[in-house]
Amino acid sequence: MTTSDSTQRTSSPGSEFPPFSADEIRAGIRGGVWEKVFFFESVDSTNERALALTASELPERASVIIAESQTNGRGRLGRRWVSPPGRNLYFSAVLRPAIVPKDATLLTIIAAVSGAVALRNRTGLEVRIKWPNDLMVKGRKIGGILTELRSDSGKINLAVIGMGVNVNIEAAEFAEELRGIATSVRAETGEIFSRTGIVTEILNELGGWYKRLMREGRQPALTEWIRLSSTVGMEVRVVIGEETISGFAETIDDEGRLILRLRSGVTRRISSGDVMELR
Ligand code: BTN
User: Fold this and answer.
1) pLDDT, tens digit, 9 for 90 and up, residues 60-116
2) Ligand 1 center to residue 164 CA distance, Å?
3) Which long-range contacts (CB under 8 A, 24 or more apart) does 3-11 make?
4) Which of 80, 94, 178, 278 is most deeply packed, by most CB within 10 A?
């Protein structure tokens, strides 16, 4: 792992929050997957920054871009990801896997599994995965994942897995429209957590799952995703663009598509949409 690719930052002395700095993150990372850690005080979006990495900045192996805040954080389906400083986690894992673009959903799957497992280990919260990749606690969103690709002639040059996790933001600090649907580690536990501890745990999980995916194929990751899912086995409503359909979420297929059994008995495979879990 290199040690000098970034702006250094530590939470200000006397701050109520535990230190959050590039060096501490580097010191906590294990497993040999993460070659470089880039740390920025503020970027437009860590995903955007990752997609813009030049050939000379790009390491052979994986790297990670972390920011204290984002001015234009991106969410799924063209939404914004509000990213104030000092509270939460915003980072992008940059990978160069030898897989075809259609299998990139597997990267999102291992990211969701890693986020859920790491948050469970660090915080004790019962984090579950809502299809496709929302990290949830008691029906509220605590984290989200956005995977973006740079590909060329059917080959992935760069896979960017962006993750945002609400760590120390208080319930009252959420924008009006997010109250009721979003939560944070602090809102759920009443405690302040080290963002360094959480992000290193997620990266260590993700590094392990990435190696396993490359070595053993997709099945272990899909099985773990299904085990952690809140969606599988539920009656759900799915909004797909202009269309809304309801049915029973049977499972996900090998490409991470949701297999939905409609009331008519017809089965649909869904690649993208917004799920509401009914019962
Ligand atoms: C979602 O809509 O659920 C996905 C949210 C993903 C947010 C993260 S924050 C770090 C990375 N950079 C971005 O601009 N977005 C992702």
Assistant:
1) 889 999 999 999 999 998 999 999 999 999 999 999 998 989 899 999 999 999 999
2) 5
3) 5/36, 5/37, 5/38, 5/39, 6/37, 6/38, 6/39, 6/40, 7/39, 7/40, 7/41, 8/39, 9/39, 9/41, 9/68, 11/86
4) 94
In whole angstroms, what is the distance from residue 165 CA to residue 229 CA?
18
Question: Please, which residues bridge with residue 245 across strands?
Answer: 238
12 secondary structure, DSSP code: P
Residue identifier of the C-alpha nearest atom 9 of ligand 1: 164
Preceding peptide of 132 cis, ω within 30°: yes
Residue entry with tokens 């969606």: 231
pLDDT at 11 over 60: no
Q: Which atom of ligand 1 is nearest to the CA of 133?
A: 3
Q: Which amino acid is at 44?
A: D
Q: What's the burial of 211, exposed, middle or buried (CB within 10 Å: 0-12/13-18/19+)?
A: middle
Structure-block tokens of residue 158? 């760069």
CA–CA gap between residue 276 and residue 279 (Å, rounded): 10
* Atom 15 in ligand 1: residue holding the nearest Cα: 74
Q: Which residue has the tokens 């501490």?
A: 24
